[in-house]
NTE family protein RssA (Candidatus Accumulibacter appositus), 321 residues
Amino acid sequence: MSRPRLGLALGSGSARGWSHIGILGALAERGLRADVITGASVGALVGAASAAGRLDALERWVCTLTQRDVWRLVDTTFRGGGVMSGNRLMKTIAEQIGDAPIESLPTTFGAVATDLYTGEEIWLREGSFMAAVRASSGLPGLLAPTWYQQRWLIDGGVVNPVPVSLCRALGADVVIAVDLRRSVTKMAMRAPEGLADSQDRKKAAENEAAVEATSEASAEGTAILRRWAGLVDGLVESFRSRRSDPGLFEVMSGAVNIMQDRITRSRLAIDPADLVLRPDLADFQLMDFHRAREAIEIGRKQVQTVAPQLASIAAQLRSGQ
């Protein structure tokens, strides 16, 4: 009998997704290397890098990112169905981890996307893995949809935020899932009642730095952002408005989070994983990509907390049962 195949289903979650890197590294240290990896959105990105053997390169790069670097990657547009086209971001990522046909990867890989017009769950199993990552990462309202395989595709997290079903379909016998959704209950408990003066000054300084960085990246983007100053205040949750009412992108992010919270609960009930890891990343905002070191460490610590369950899975894999 052949040994059971281990699968990893990496969930969507924007900047929280860097925790996948820490989780994958900690699992590998315990001898748990995946035979199958699937992902949605940022989970697809980290999963593709791992499947291609380029996870270390991705980790080195994300750990160098500053908030200004993140803003430089924002290619603003108010056309095409999103605030960002995503082209600059994906080109930069490809420079770090390369690209290759999914069929050629040493580890079985698949990404999930959503057909914008039919709502179908689309499994991406062939062609450029970077093209699949981009198609899986079109967060509604933020990143423009992608025309891929004769469809307009948006974020896979819209229909399957933690793609356990795809993992099993690709041959995984044992599945470890990583769920990055932010608990709606916990978020309600942390709902802000207002910002202190010191926080106001800090956020104002961050907004100014963001506009400056965008100016360096694109003169056209700067003109747009200055014209739409209200959108700059709300472009990411971390740049909260001084007003007590939520900004545009906070509303968008909150709505997506609520949707994914409900969908993930339903999908994991129907397609349960053998083990679900839920790192505590509630303090991470939509665009906190510059906080990679923190997220990675949180991911590593999450693996430590489930050591007994992982030992059981490792024994199961060794025994072939």
Q: What stands out?
A: The chain has one domain: 6-187+246-319. The radius of gyration is 19 Å.
